[in-house]
Amino acid sequence: MSVRNTVLRASAAMLLVSGSVAAAAAAEPLSGAAATKMLYPADGAEVRVIPRDFMGPSDPQILKQVGATQKYYGAVAVSPAEGLASEATVAGANFHDVDSARASALKACNAKRATGTPPCQIVAEILPRGWKQGRLQLSADATAAFADTYAAQDAPKALAISPATGEWAIGVGQDAGQLALLGCRERARGRVKDAGPCTLSVQD
After folding, report:
1. Are 198 and 138 in contact (CB under 8 A)?
2. What is the per-residue pLDDT across 69-95, written as a single tens digit (0 to 9) for each?
């Protein structure tokens, strides 16, 4: 099983930028205090297996074991015709929400599956322990950086995320929001050409 961990590979060294740039478009981010109440612990994840007709009797346990080594939010995609042990099996991990992780895993799996075989399907999701719909969602790495780095900075400060890639950046100082957005876009486009926009998630 191959693992695509976009944030860990591209953003393990958290991007912290400071300075001054031109004003940017406004957003509706949460305050640091509000985010603190909504985020999950960065080191706690659970694997939810999605039963499929093509799965073998030992596959659920294997998925739980492998998934437990990945960071939330994540998903595992499998080619039905080739099974869990296939090279087409892909885990997308360390995204800011499970839907983005699913999309990444499916795209990579479908690119690897044998020609003419049925499309890949999601067989597992990796979520924070106690996950509930509607709370603020950040990747495990971004959550850790929020607690360890963002919280230690004086305002003004901001954290921007790329939903499509799992990338993120923190900006501090004058025009912190724009700095965070610029840093996030640079990292996201370095991974995926059509990565889409970054958004401000937290700002003080």
Report:
1. no
2. 889 999 999 999 999 989 999 999 999
